[in-house]
Design brief:
heterodimer, A: alpha+beta, 3 domains, 14 strands, B: about 550 residues, TIM Barrel, Oligo-1,6-glucosidase, domain 2, eight-stranded parallel beta barrel, 18 helices
């Protein structure tokens, strides 16, 4: 009843406008390599696998009568693909993730045994769309797909089978041909991102500095000293320590599931040195950077294991049952094989430590009326220490870290350097007003 | 919590904890008394409390604040006499107020005639009323509760030349519940006071009634059996009575004291209190939601007792290792909490006398599942005097007026049982009932108004189910209370800064939130996330009604 190939011209215009489109410009070639149609009356769901230049995408197309003007599309013009003709009459094709009714059909395709009444789209990420059902289930629909196991599916399944409790255990997955298309997990109700919690803590700390919140015992008392983050009501260090412990547990489980690998730290040092070349002169102190890399090349770096790969405060959720970790896809712009490549667990640790610095810097920028550098630094230091304490306690028995604590520090410094280099490049390209944050870190690390 | 639309009075009640000694001195001898309470019932009734809870008023040598009872049938003379209690009870009932009192079942004072008789020799009629032994080694697994003062649960009695068992102070020998005469005697005590007209008891230290080899002597089957027997007796003889258990334990363990709904009617929820404070300190909801997630359902017809301040505090040795780590990291280690662990602080100083925080904490107390228990003086934001030591710091005289002795007593100042507070922030010149009643914007008036609103929705708040709502903003605690088709939405901002929140309420599409203090209708709930903004430490109570015109 619907002529699917006729969608191709509309798709070649629509696809490049999507956030998860990976090509640079409009696709030179576009082909539908797989299709499945559900339903014979409006609304109809069409699941497509589309090859556009070098990439493959999953497109879920909803079809409804042209005069329906559904409310869910209001304000989402980018979701409309095209007006089309069908045997049932004039119709409109659109991105089906916005359609709460078809979202239930999508769920049924992935997990026929799961029943739900309500669906809502949770906002689109760079490489996937997430739909929440009844505030109980979350379906992650991969939009850009690659042959072979999607790391999200592969890693969450492996971690769950290791008995690692801080990950949402997959309830169902959908795999078509050689592609992972979707994963269904329990929705972590009542959760908040680590990033929001860290900012809450920082805002509370900076608020202690407000003159209005300091009691005056005598009008000629000396001015109060800077607040101590340890005395602050919003102290985050307990959370940071538990987050560190969860991270350590995750690495032990990853090592148990995917193996511990011998590694050569010179390869890592060389790779970081290459990335440093992309920076501008004056971004950092060359001698300091060289010292960090020389030290890295020269030591026993511990084991390489499967890592999270893109670990920061936005990837962890605080729930009533403690911290959970999300999103093992790694950096989606990089090829699958590279994302699955073993690395040092301290790479993830460095990612989180960089995130603590970002949080403190962002919170400081929010209220630049005060000189808060020292306070922000004290917060960062306190929570770094707490995180590392929790991490070392949980990860050490896993036999994955360098045996010598000084080596741990050296490897960590090198990966913090690598992360900061990446951040400088990213901020220069997308958020120049934030580039001072990683630049400050680079200078701090290399001076 | 399971639903029951009927419910009992105590499931909807607001309790008001009164220290007899500190409330009002009717005969100007420097010590509060029973008649003083009777004379000041207007205040409690105006405030909107439903039930008085009297701390112990029995004859006692007062070596443990009256929890060392030497005669269960006599009133401590400085508090008055039995006729005064009868008068108070009748006056309460005339006003539709209820009244319960502390009762210690586990032990007596060593000055109690029962013990004096029991210790004489090994053959007297009461020889077996206490737990005696030639050795001080039995029941080694029972922990010592007052580790600061006691070295053993056994003490030597030079008269009888035997050791006697005591779970608390050595001057508080434990009764021997294996002896049927003891059980009967305690049932007689209960019946006596119910005949006087008390509406129930707060049962002190219930987990320890029995001792058994190879156990820690807590929560034994025999103890539960006795509570079941007690419950059966009072249900038959005095229906409508409430037994409120003090079992200072984790909620998952405390629920055992509800039995199948055939033991205690109420138990205190101890861990909630410190976690409410931590949530406001941390400006995030997890301290509260975590403990609620660990709180089991309780049987129909039962209720939690919840409180902000009280003369007791959670003891850390009662909790699991994980919980202890958590409590240590997040509670005991917090400098303010550390300084205030124990019973030496009142609510207002604990929160820097912050009016908004006090309102928020009370809004939580009045809207979370459980019957709220208020502590005398907290309605006016009274302070404490930590230099008086341990418990006395929070037991200073109620501050009625700015007059001499805070209007508590006309005795000479030097004759008062404790000095009233006189500091510039919390002293009675600044903080007193009279001034706050005149000031319509005072916290006292806020509390009175809030309790009025709570009373109007007592069914839902007292009996309804609880569902915590997801919110990405960690500073916002939002929950639904539901009883049948009646729904309340409570949204609380734990941060001192203004906060936004988007609630996923699509399943309630077509309902309209009506704010309960002003009956102001808010925009109807639709398919989109419901956006609310809250002022710093602000909160909303909404009733959810059908929007005019049905679903939008």
């Amino acid at each position: 009843m619907i002529d699917v190939p006729s969608l191709v011209p509309a798709l070649s215009e629509w696809l490049p406008r999507q956030r998860w489109y990976s090509g640079q410009t409009e696709a030179a070639s576009l082909a539908i390599i797989d299709q499945e149609i559900r339903g014979d009356q409006f609304p109809i769901l069409i699941r497509l696998l589309v090859e556009a230049d070098d990439y493959t995408y999953q497109v879920v197309v909803g079809v409804r009568g042209r005069d329906e003007h559904p409310e869910f599309l209001r304000g989402h013009d980018q979701a409309v693909i095209a007006d089309i003709s069908t045997q049932a009459g004039d119709a409109m094709a659109y991105d089906a993730v916005y359609d709460p009714e078809l979202a239930l059909v999508i769920l049924d395709a992935v997990a026929p045994h799961e029943k739900a009444e309500r669906a809502r789209l949770m906002g689109a990420e760079q490489s996937n769309s997430s739909i929440v059902y009844d505030e109980r289930l979350i379906l992650k629909l991969f939009r850009r797909v690659q042959r072979g196991h999607n790391p999200e599916v592969e890693v969450t399944e492996a971690l769950a089978s290791q008995g690692f409790a801080s990950v949402a255990e997959p309830l169902a997955t959908q795999r078509v041909r050689d592609y992972d298309l979707a994963i269904l997990q329990p929705f972590l109700a009542g959760a908040s991102e680590g990033w929001s919690l860290a900012l809450t803590s920082l805002r509370d700390l900076f608020g202690m500095n407000d003159t209005s919140s300091i009691p005056i015992i005598s009008l000629d008392s000396p001015p109060p000293p800077l607040p101590d983050p340890g005395q602050a009501g919003g102290d985050f260090s307990g959370e940071a320590a538990r987050l560190g412990a969860m991270t350590g547990g995750m690495h032990v489980a990853l090592a148990d599931a995917f193996g511990r690998h011998r590694t050569d730290s010179r390869v890592w040092a060389a790779s970081i040195a290459r990335q440093l070349d992309a920076l501008e002169p004056g971004d950092y102190d060359r001698r300091g950077a060289k010292a960090i890399l020389d030290q890295l090349a020269d030591l026993d770096p511990g084991h390489a294991i499967r890592v999270h790969g893109d670990y920061h405060l936005g990837q962890v959720l605080r729930t009533d049952a403690g911290w959970f970790v999300l999103d093992f896809e790694g950096e989606p712009a990089r090829p699958l094989e590279e994302r699955r490549h073993p690395s040092s667990p301290l790479k993830d640790v460095a990612g989180m430590l960089r995130s603590f610095h970002y949080a403190s810097a962002v919170a400081r920028t929010e209220r630049d009326e005060y000189a808060l550098e020292d306070l922000a630094a004290a917060w960062e230091d306190r929570n770094r220490q707490a995180f590392l304490r929790g991490y070392m306690r949980a990860a050490s028995p896993g036999n994955i870290l360098p045996p010598d604590p000084e080596c741990v520090d050296a490897v960590l410094a090198a990966f913090e350097l690598e992360k900061a280099v990446y951040e400088v490049g990213y901020e220069r390209a997308f958020r120049p007003e934030w580039v001072h944050i990683p630049l400050a870190a680079l200078r701090r690390l290399t001076s | 919590m399971t639903e029951a639309t009927e419910g009992s009075w105590f499931q909807r009640a607001v309790f008001y904890e009164v220290l007899v000694r500190g409330f009002f001195d009717s005969n100007n001898d420097g010590t509060g008394d029973i008649r003083g309470i009777t004379e000041r019932l207007d205040h409690i009734q105006w405030l909107g409390a439903d039930c008085l809870w009297l701390l112990p008023f029995y004859q006692s040598p007062l070596r443990d604040g009256g929890y060392d009872i030497s005669d269960f049938f006599q009133i401590l003379p400085e508090y008055g006499d039995l006729a005064d209690v009868v008068e108070l009870v009748e006056e309460c009932h005339r006003r539709d107020l209820r009244i319960i009192a502390d009762l210690v079942m586990n032990h007596t004072s060593d000055a109690h005639p029962w013990f004096q008789e029991s210790r004489l020799d090994r053959t007297n009629p009461k020889a077996d009323w206490y737990v005696w032994s030639d050795e001080d080694t039995r029941y080694p697994d029972a922990r010592i509760i007052f580790v600061d003062t006691e070295r053993s649960n056994w003490s030597w009695d030079p008269v009888r030349e035997q050791f006697y068992w005591h779970r608390f102070f050595s001057h508080q020998p434990d009764l021997n519940y294996d002896n049927p005469e003891v059980r009967q005697a305690m049932l007689d005590v209960v019946r006596f006071w119910l005949d006087v007209g008390l509406d129930g008891f707060r049962l002190d230290a219930v987990p320890y009634l029995y001792e058994r080899d190879g156990t820690n002597g807590e929560n034994l089957t025999e103890t539960h059996d006795f509570l079941k027997q007690l419950r059966k007796e009072i249900d038959t003889s005095h229906p409508g009575t409430v037994m409120l258990a003090e079992a200072n334990q984790w909620p998952a363990d405390v629920v055992d004291y509800y039995g199948e709904g055939d033991e205690c009617h109420m138990c205190f929820h101890f861990p909630l209190m410190p976690r409410m404070f931590m949530a406001v300190r941390r400006e995030q909801r997890y301290p509260i939601t975590e403990i609620l997630a660990q709180t089991p359902e309780i049987p129909n017809g039962c209720q939690w007792g919840i409180f902000l301040r009280n003369h007791d505090e959670l003891t850390l040795e009662m909790v699991t290792d994980d919980e202890r780590d958590y409590m240590y990291n997040e509670y005991a280690k917090d400098p303010r909490m550390k300084r205030n662990v124990g019973i030496s602080r009142r609510l207002a100083p604990l929160i820097d006398n912050n009016r908004a925080v006090s309102e928020l904490l009370h809004a939580l107390l009045f809207s979370l599942p459980g019957s709220p228990v208020l502590y005398y003086g907290d309605e006016i934001g009274m302070g404490d005097n930590i230099y008086l030591g341990d418990r006395d710091g929070v037991r200073t005289p109620m501050q009625w007026t700015p007059d001499r002795n805070a209007g508590f007593s006309k005795a000479d100042f030097a004759q008062l049982y404790l000095p009233p507070l006189m500091d510039p922030v919390y002293g009675y010149q600044a903080v007193n009932v009279e001034a706050m009643q005149r000031d319509a914007g005072s916290f006292l008036h806020w509390m009175q108004r809030t309790l009025q609103v709570r009373r109007q929705h007592g069914d839902v708040l007292g009996l309804g189910s609880l569902e915590i709502l997801s919110a990405e903003n960690p500073s916002v605690l939002a929950f639904l209370r539901q009883l049948g088709d009646r729904l309340m939405l409570c949204v609380n901002n734990l941060s001192r800064f203004a906060q936004p929140v988007e609630l996923q309420l699509a399943r309630l599409s077509g309902k309209m939130p009506v704010e309960l203090f002003g009956r102001v209708p808010f925009p109807a709930i639709g398919e989109l996330p419901y956006l609310l903004t809250l002022s710093g430490h602000g909160f909303y109570w909404f009733e959810l009604v059908d929007a005019p015109g049905g679903s939008q």
